[in-house]
Design goal:
Blueprint: E1 3-8, H1 16-24, E2 29-32, E3 41-45, E4 48-52, E5 65-68, E6 73-74, H2 76-88, E7 97-99, E8 103-104, H3 107-120, H4 132-141, H5 153-174, H6 182-190, H7 193-196, E9 200-201, H8 203-212, E10 217-220, H9 246-251, E11 260-266, E12 269-271, H10 284-293, E13 305-307, E14 309-310, H11 311-321, E15 325-329, E16 339-348, E17 351-353, H12 360-364, E18 367-374, H13 391-404, E19 408-412, E20 420-422
Parallel strand pairs: 1-10, 1-11, 2-5, 2-10, 5-7, 6-8, 7-9, 11-15, 14-16, 15-19
Antiparallel strand pairs: 3-4, 12-13, 16-17, 16-18, 19-20
Helix pairs in contact: 3-4, 5-6
InterPro entries: Adenylosuccin_syn_GTP-bd, Adenylosuccin_syn_Lys_AS, Adenylosuccinate_synth_dom1, Adenylosuccinate_synth_dom2, Adenylosuccinate_synth_dom3, Adenylosuccinate_synthetase, P-loop_NTPase
Catalytic activity: IMP + L-aspartate + GTP = N(6)-(1,2-dicarboxyethyl)-AMP + GDP + phosphate + 2 H(+)
GO molecular function: adenylosuccinate synthase activity
């Protein structure tokens, strides 16, 4: 089973870092193929907690090669801050590889991201303001800056100058901000060249050669299915392809090389930022899920919106990704609920929808149709087999599996790496 994709099956923050890290000790490469430092993974190793933003979580697994693919946008300042923080804690980061074709987030795109969101007012998308969207826009507009451009000062300066010809007009004339200086931006980017050079590689070649040699690779998505630029709740989405199809373009491998697609999904639902969220709770139960689950953004610290499990979204995610397995996380957070509602369909103006509505307007007005399941009161954090779970917790998992249409292969019952019940081996 050489190539496994791990991605979020909801709106993000499902626990992909933990799932990938569990596989990481048994795989040779962990590859991030999309996104940037606009999302975070919290990985708990023993008594140590690590918050990763840009780096693949496999960097914490000895012997595993972490790779940042060409589909990622890289904030170089954040990259080296993360590397230095890990090094100071005794983590070996020398194996990291970065695609020469990955795009760099220049400082002017961070500025544009923030001022654009403020300008949109109540119509804002809810971005993290880290320059991700503008950098992906530059990529599509063919005015972006790649990692490889850092090694040729003349080309780099020409590209910065070309990009700022338009962007400075927007900054000055529309947003009343100071123009970005070509020399300053070029100098800042050049300052990272010598430090990043040893990490740069033709990662597509490296990964395909690894697959040819029978190595085991895990492809780790940033963001999640419902934030995918094509298949998510557009326009309240990220700027990259967070679904399984993004692996091929974001890492440079063919679709025939992918063997298994694992969706990570919470036992309830959360979302950060703006946009529709049918099962969202605005009451004490929502606050309980937030506090008990520690639902605050790893990267931004923003409180996450919380709601009940949405089987409609789970089925949709299974379809657009071709999921073979689900990893269910944070089942322990639901302990102590007398009844646990699960959304099985939507009501849109009196019409029942068992699948995702075709248009976003209908989804925006969707009301959840719930089925209530019996809860449990026992502490499940010590459980390591499915049979050790309380009967009602077992029934809840089996009901989600049937409603979602994908087998649940692993169940998280606590934040620690060991707090997991394995029903099916993800690499078998």
């Amino acid at each position: 089973m050489p190539a496994v994709v791990v991605l979020g099956a909801q709106w993000g923050d499902e626990g992909k870092g933990k799932a990938t890290d569990q596989l990481g000790s048994r795989v040779d490469y962990v590859v991030k193929f999309n996104g940037g430092n606009n999302a975070g993974h919290t990985v708990v190793v023993g008594d140590e907690k690590y918050a990763l933003h840009l780096l693949p979580s496999g960097i914490l697994s000895p012997g595993c090669v972490p790779v940042v693919g060409n589909g990622v946008v890289v904030d170089l300042e954040v990259l080296f801050e993360e590397l230095e923080a890990l090094t100071s804690r005794g983590v070996d980061v020398s194996r990291l590889l970065i695609s020469s074709s990955a795009h760099v987030i220049p400082s002017y795109n961070r500025t544009l991201d923030k001022v654009t969101e403020r300008f949109l007012g109540k119509r804002q998308i809810g971005t993290t303001g880290r320059g991700i969207g503008p950098t992906y826009a530059d990529k599509m507009n063919r005015v972006g800056i790649r990692i490889s451009d850092l090694f040729d000062e003349k080309i780099l300066r020409e590209k910065v100058e070309g990009a700022l010809t338009q962007k400075n007009q927007i900054l000055v004339k529309i947003y009343n901000r100071r123009a970005a200086d070509v020399d300053a931006v070029t100098a800042e980017l050049l300052s990272y060249a010598d430090r990043v050079r040893p990490m740069v590689a033709d990662t597509s070649l490296v990964l395909n050669q690894a697959l040819d040699a029978g190595k085991t690779l895990v492809f780790e998505a940033g963001q999640a299915t419902m934030l995918d630029v094509d298949h998510g709740t557009y326009p309240f989405v990220t700027s990259s392809s967070a679904t399984a199809g993004g692996v091929c373009t974001g890492a440079g491998i063919g679709p025939s090389r992918v063997d298994r697609v694992v969706g990570v999904i919470k036992a309830y639902t959360t979302r950060v930022g703006e946009g529709p969220f049918p099962t969202e709770l605005h009451d004490d139960l929502g606050e309980h899920l937030r506090k008990t689950g520690g639902e605050y953004g790893v990267t931004t610290g923003r409180p996450r919106r919380t709601g009940w499990y949405d089987a409609v979204i789970a089925r949709y995610s299974g379809r657009v990704n071709g999921l073979t397995d689900l990893v269910l996380t944070k089942l322990d957070v639901l302990t102590g609920q007398e009844k646990v509602p699960v959304c099985v369909a939507y009501d849109v103006d009196g019409v029942r929808h068992d699948e995702m509505p075709v248009d976003q307007s209908a989804f925006h007005h969707a009301k959840p149709v719930y089925e209530e399941l019996d809860g449990w009161w026992e502490d499940i954090s010590h459980c390591r087999t499915f049979e050790e779970l309380p009967v009602n917790a077992q029934r809840y998992v089996l009901a989600l599996e049937e409603m979602s249409g994908t087998r649940i292969s692993s169940i998280g019952v606590g934040p620690d790496r060991e707090a997991t019940i394995v029903r099916h081996d993800l690499l078998d």
